[in-house]
Amino acid sequence: MIERNATIERETRETKISLTLDLDGRGEYEVNTGIGFFDHMLCHIARHGLFDLQVQASGDVEVDYHHLVEDVGIVLGKAIAEAAGDKRGLVRYGMAACPMDEALVLVAIDLGGRSYLRWEMDFSAEKIGDFDTELLHEFFAAVASNAGMALHLVQQSGGNAHHVAEGAFKSFARALDQATRIDERISDVPSTKGVL
Question: pLDDT at residue 79 above 70?
Answer without folding.
Answer: yes
